[in-house]
Design a protein that fits this description.
Structural class: alpha/beta
Distance between the termini: 101 Å
Strand content: 25-35%
Largest sheet: 7 strands, mixed
Number of strands: 13
Radius of gyration: 27 Å
Helix content: 40-55%
Low-confidence stretches: 28-38
Number of domains: 2
Order of helices and strands: HEEEEEEEEHEEEEEHHHH
Oligomer: single chain
């Protein structure tokens, strides 16, 4: 009798162990499948975001805006690197699944996109607007990305900036009746979350200054962290250097037909932007750019 009871107990024990192993393997397999599917979804989403950026390319418009709504809470990582001729913009997405953030190293890259944003941008709805960056010729479109959860209150902004912010028409931008949790963007006082000094051309954010030339870079400085801003700015200067070289050759070709454009400064722009250090150097480049802009405007044969 005792022997039979022992056999029955052992059989049950064996069945429980085997069942537990099978259950563990099943759960492990399902987890792997879900994880693999989520990784694929993150990569697909990154690619789709890149495609959605194309309509933001400006033609004759001064600014373009759009929005992006994700199915779940998401983090967008707009990475920047300086590899290659023009550096590279990469996009990586992490989404919330079962209250946990997915972890993926898969990313999609572009050599002709320039996204300025805080790193990372988190939320479900994202706003994007683009503005052309001229230096002095059209270089690229600066794309600004913000989350609907991050609000900005523009205080004492100049009339042209107020008009443009109003035209961008994003729900997270305020010119009056600002919510208490909004970040203050000031133009006449340095005691705000973000201070824009248009006399000395810098944005002071979180105690760090970045310098700008023109409104496109001003917006970039307001809405991105300093590291992202400096990296993307270097990429833009790499592009300026290459375009300046092309226009210099074009100016030489036009001069052979007795149409001198008098744009010798293109060589200086090519050299200076080719060895660009940081946004602090923008001020000295501004003199070259303004001179080139004036001379091209007066030239008999305009180069751009």
């Amino acid at each position: 009798m005792k022997k039979a009871q022992l056999n029955i107990s052992f059989a049950w024990l064996f069945a429980i162990i085997v069942g537990a192993v099978i259950l563990f393997l099943a759960i492990f397999a399902v987890t792997k499948i879900i994880g693999s599917g989520q990784t694929e979804m993150d990569a697909k989403t990154s690619k789709e975001i890149g495609v959605l950026l194309n309509p933001l390319e400006t033609g004759f418009e001064s600014v373009k805006a759009t929005s992006l709504t994700m199915p779940v809470e998401s983090r967008i990582y707009p990475d920047c690197n300086l590899y290659g001729a023009f550096g590279r913009q990469t996009i990586r997405v992490s989404q919330k699944s079962f209250r946990e953030w997915t972890d993926t190293n898969l990313e999609v890259g572009f050599s002709n996109k320039y996204i300025f944003a805080d790193y990372p941008v988190e939320g479900r709805k994202f706003y994007l607007f683009s503005k052309p960056f001229d230096f002095p010729f059209k270089v690229a479109d600066v794309i600004v990305m913000t989350s609907s959860e991050r609000k900005y209150c523009f205080i004492d902004a100049p009339d042209d900036i107020e008009t443009e912010i109003s035209n961008i028409n994003q729900d997270n931008f305020y010119l009056d009746d600002c919510p208490e949790d909004a970040l203050d963007v000031c133009f006449e006082s340095g005691s705000c979350d973000i201070y824009v000094n248009q006399n000395q051309n810098y944005v002071d954010k979180n105690g760090t200054k970045v310098y700008f030339e023109g409104d496109a870079l001003m917006y970039a400085g307001i809405f991105s962290d300093a590291e992202t801003y400096e990296c993307q700015l270097k990429r833009l200067m790499m592009r300026v250097s290459s375009i300046a070289l092309l226009y210099r050759d074009k100016a030489s070709f036009v001069a052979r037909n007795n149409c001198n454009s008098n744009l010798g400064g293109l060589s200086s722009l090519y050299t200076s932007t080719g060895s660009f250090g940081s946004s602090v150097n923008l001020g000295s480049l501004g003199f070259i750019v303004n001179d080139l802009e004036d001379k091209n405007e007066l030239a008999q044969c305009k180069i751009w």
